[in-house]
Amino acid sequence: MAAPSTLPRFAFLTPRTLPPAAKIEGRVAVLDVAFASEGGGGSFDKTTLPFIRGLGPRLAAWVDHHDHDRHADYKDDPRFVLATKAQHGACPELVTPDVVHRAGPVDTVAMHLDLDGLYSGAKWVLGGIEPYAGADADARAIDTRRGEPGPIAARIDRALRARFRDETLKHRVIQFLLAGAQAPVLWQEIEEAAREIDPLLDESKRLAERYQIIDGVAYVETAGRHYDKTELLLLGQERAPVAVVRDSGALTIAADFESGLDFVKMFDLGGGMPTRITVPEARRAEVMAKLAAAVAARGAKVV
């Protein structure tokens, strides 16, 4: 399916730092943006709810797949298509032709700024059709870190991780997807960005050598180094069922998508991705104690 001749505006959001609703123009579709949890300095009541209320009737759709207790508040509002991570490992699979048609025309597509979000945004513009065959499965592989994504998604993922804050690159990725992944000039830009992650991956490997296994949990402090956090967490999970990275006053905790662990419930966060969360480092003692108990309860193997 070809992209429409007139494209909506694109906005790139993060759950804990939503802009004033007045800065988002016209009717809006919000995709892959989790309701804010209690663990990262924000909360639903302080961050997400004011944004929803600020958009008011301009909110055409909110489609998301992150766990949150407050999903129940919107079960009778047809604009909200909300699921859990276990139900849908990635957001694009929720962006169906029916969901897009029901929402009607939108002026702005506001999406999370990772691959899962950008794929959701492109699919929305295409009327709920994948930008290329297998795109939904690729997004799921990337967002769950389970299975092998195809070569297109693998390179886009690396590019976005290398230039996480680069909005121009995000626009290029969407343009590439809207072109059916058939745009050599745009692909060259994506490839150039993807190559920039190599030094960050190398640093992650060096940092991984500093992992300590504490009561069955892999723990490392990064000391302000420049690295790729996703890679470092995955390397930690090769050593223990749970990896914890301390960086910039926070602890990021991760486990395999199919581990059965639910950190959102374990640490009373209210919402988020069950197997990857971030909490203030002030909770370190609590974090390590609860994780040790959870690993011990499962009798999980530590390398």
Can you put this structure into words, describing what you see?
- There is one protein chain.
- The chain has 303 residues and is α/β, with parallel strands linked by helices.
- It has two domains: 9-195, no CATH class; 200-298, Diaminopimelate Epimerase, Chain A, domain 1, CATH 3.10.310.30.
- The protein is 38% helix and 17% strand.
- It has helices at residues 44-55, 97-103, 115-125, 135-144, 151-162, 167-178, 184-195, 198-208, 229-237, 263-266, 284-298; strands at 9-13, 28-31, 59-64, 67-68, 80-82, 108-112, 212-214, 217-221, 242-247, 250-255, 271-272, 276-280.
- The strands form three sheets. A five-stranded parallel sheet has the order 1-6-2-3-5, covered by helices on one side.
Return the structural class: alpha/beta
Span of the ends, CA to CA: 48 Å
The number of helical runs is 11
Order of helices and strands: EEHEEEHEHHHHHHEEHEEHEEH
- Note the main sheet: 5 strands, parallel
Total strand segments? 12
Overall pLDDT: 94
Q: Are there runs of 5+ residues with pLDDT below 50, and where?
A: none
Percent range for β-strand residues: 15-25%
Write down the overall geometry. globular
How many domains? 2
Write a brief caption for the model.
With 303 residues, this protein is α/β, with parallel strands linked by helices. It has 11 helices and 12 strands.
Keywords:
single chain; Diaminopimelate Epimerase, Chain A, domain 1; 38% helix; 303 residues; 5-stranded mixed sheet; alpha/beta; 5-stranded parallel sheet
